[in-house]
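Changelog entry: the Uroporphyrinogen-III synthase record was regenerated in this release. Current contents:
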Amino acid sequence: MRRVLVTRPEPGASETAARLAGMGFEPLVLPLTETVPLHPAIHAQPVDVVAITSPNAIRHAPQSVFDALKGKPVLAVGRRTGEAARAAGLDVVDDEAGDAERLARCIDAAFMAPADVTVLCGRVRRDVLETRLRAAGHRPRLIEIYDTLPLEPSDAAIRSVIGEWPVDAVLLYSANGAEQLRRFMARSAMGTKLGAATFYCLSERIAGILGQDVKKTARIADFPSEDRLLFLLKT
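Regenerated structure tokens:
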């Protein structure tokens, strides 16, 4: 049975582990980051469209955000984000973009500039979405819903998860997680167990954070979604 290391934050890590177990893999859950709510206030301002960049922007949002945006058209970055937004009562009209670059293009294609775009996002992020929207003549308003913080598991905690056997595969979903993993791979408790592992990444940028040697052998999803990442793992 192939042993697969899952480093994404909870609750996503446990959700991924359940999927892996159902596929016949042995999941090893070791979150290296965590998401925490920021409790933002939302003020009455014009809203033509809402952009949501992560399920965490729904998971950590206060009810006041949903109340303020009820009935507004929502574009979500991906299917899981769209499902979370619908469950929160938001009107999702598109959840097929896949990443911030494509999400900006979808918004620009659907709404004439200048549109007032409320963006539910994390504090730690690239500025791709807002930069692309401004360049297209739109007016993004960022509401930072959550922050992403590093976790520092001890060597003993790492050993308790990984055990004595080598890891066959590592799933990487974010630049933050990749940066943390790169740091921990320098520690004997983890690095020696990952020497022969294949790294499965949502993007080339994520793979590149681990270094060129890893990037040469990493497998990159052809679309930034967990479904495509797990498809790669099966092949």
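The chain has a mean pLDDT of 94.
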